[in-house]
Amino acid sequence: MHEGRKKEEFNNFNKTILELGSGEGCFGKVLKKKGYNVICSDLNTENFGVEDIECLQIDVNHSLDFEDEKFDYVIAIEVIEHLENPYNLIHESYRILKKGGKLILTTPNTQSIYNRLFFLITGHMIFFNNFYLTINHISPIFLFILKHIIENKFEIKQINFTGSPIFISSRGILNKFRFPDNISIFGENIILELEKL
């Protein structure tokens, strides 16, 4: 088992990842331990706390200061919904990824049943209401729009959804139940793996 892990890390050694919106650097730290060459970035780099990983100050609303076809992976976890120009993340990721490189992104699932009902009742989306606007959730991404943006650029390799908790009452006791990750109408967040054509 230990030998298998070493082999995996050796295979990752020449793979370069750009993580957009790294925050404190927790995910970048995990990737580095797995053997990847990681470059982290964030608009606000003062919260970044991993000493042996480079963290660049980058505003993803604008062009990224990297040459074409530099990275094997671009990862953006809960970033695109914060952007004034979400299309730019897709276009720039396409430019800086190698052919066959992958863009991994996550964002709130705008097509969930909870979001639809919340919108029907309140006129707002769950993750884009007044509370979320204060933390800059300003660009909801719908899957049909994403498919339009990535046309002729990326192929969707995988779509998954984080299980959403449902609380079911049983004799006055609330129990937490999670739906499987592949049911789109219940997923709290959408996870996309896109491969550059």
**What would you call the structural class?**
alpha/beta
Rg, rounded, reads: 18 Å
- CATH hierarchy: architecture: 3-Layer(aba) Sandwich
Work out the count of structural domains.
1
Mean pLDDT: 86
Which fold name fills CATH's third level, the topology? Rossmann fold
Rough outline: globular
Low-confidence segments, given as residue ranges, are 166-177
Question: Describe it for me?
Answer:
There is one protein chain. With 197 residues, the chain is of the alpha/beta class. It has a single domain, classed as Rossmann fold (3-Layer(aba) Sandwich), CATH 3.40.50.150. 27% of the residues lie in helices and 31% in strands. The chain is built from 6 helices and 9 strands; from the N terminus they run H-E-H-E-E-E-H-E-H-H-H-E-E-E-E. The strands form 2 sheets. A 7-stranded mixed beta sheet has the order 3-2-1-4-5-9-6. The protein has a two-stranded antiparallel sheet with strand order 7-8. A hairpin with a 2-residue loop joins strand 7 (165-170) and strand 8 (173-178). It is globular.
Helix and strand layout, with pairings?
Blueprint: H1 2-12, E1 16-20, H2 26-33, E2 37-42, E3 54-57, E4 71-77, H3 86-96, E5 97-108, H4 113-122, H5 130-134, H6 143-150, E6 154-161, E7 165-170, E8 173-178, E9 189-196
Parallel strand pairs: 1-2, 1-4, 2-3, 4-5
Antiparallel strand pairs: 5-9, 6-9, 7-8
